[in-house]
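Protein folds are increasingly written down as discrete tokens. With that in mind, we are printing a sequence and the tokens encoding its fold.
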Amino acid sequence: MPRGALAVRRRTTAEAGGVCSTRERRGGGTGYFGAASPRGPAHGVARAAALEPPQEADTQVLDAPAGPHEPQPPARPRGVTPGPADPRRLADGDTRLARDIETAPPPPSHVVYFQYGVAFATEQVLAPGAICDDTTIPCILGAGGGIAVRGGWRSTGPLYLGGAYELTKQDPNKLYRIALLQQARAEGRYYFMTARVTEPYAAVSLGVAGYGNEWAIDTWGPAGSIGGGVEYQITRRTVVGLAVAYRLLHFSRFTDTAGSARAPGVAQLLGIDLVLEQRDAVVRAGADDARGP
């Protein structure tokens, strides 16, 4: 091939961007295996395009919209529909929640109360003792009822310490015009803390008792009792209750209005009180400690 034709071929190949092998350049138009290429320059352009490295796409990345990314819930399997909730399981959950609320203790109280109130009291005579030993004369001490007033200190814990005065009209078998039994006693209670509106307690008392016609005191002596009761809180400050006590009252020797001598002795009574009491906060225990300097 003349030198001019070879130069034209090289220029054509370079312009087309093709890649020729060493054999094509030296052999003047032969292919890879030395044969003449029947396809000409177009074949070189196609091969050049095929051998060029791929160009990166000129794309524009759009920013995601601003805001928190919320995870999507998992897709429900096809053919599966949510069924109705089991009413027994819901009822068990409600019952368990109600039981937990009921059994949960309230927050601790740091309030000391002054507890006071009144009671409707009855005194049933179990055994009158020596003052009624003489069967030839009527017994001067019978059952009766009246009122009691009391007040005391109720701690933040289970203790109550206070005092009471009780006045009851007894049955004297017509030997007294108005037979009055008066008792003044110091009382103590120990509450069994239940953290509920109802609390039982044990009670003891020591004091003195006097008995006579109207307001006179014909006989008197020491008195003591042991018993218990239950208290129900109807409001935050008001409680009602029922108390029962076994009492021992010692009466000294005396002469009644009929002139009969009465021997000294111990009478046994059963007292029942229907209680209505109020609580007033007087001291907040630990309030000064909780307050900063």
In short: Residues 16-38, 57-64, 287-293 have pLDDT under 50 and may be disordered. The helical segments are 3-16, 22-27, 41-51, 87-103, 287-290. The chain has two domains: 3-50, 111-285.
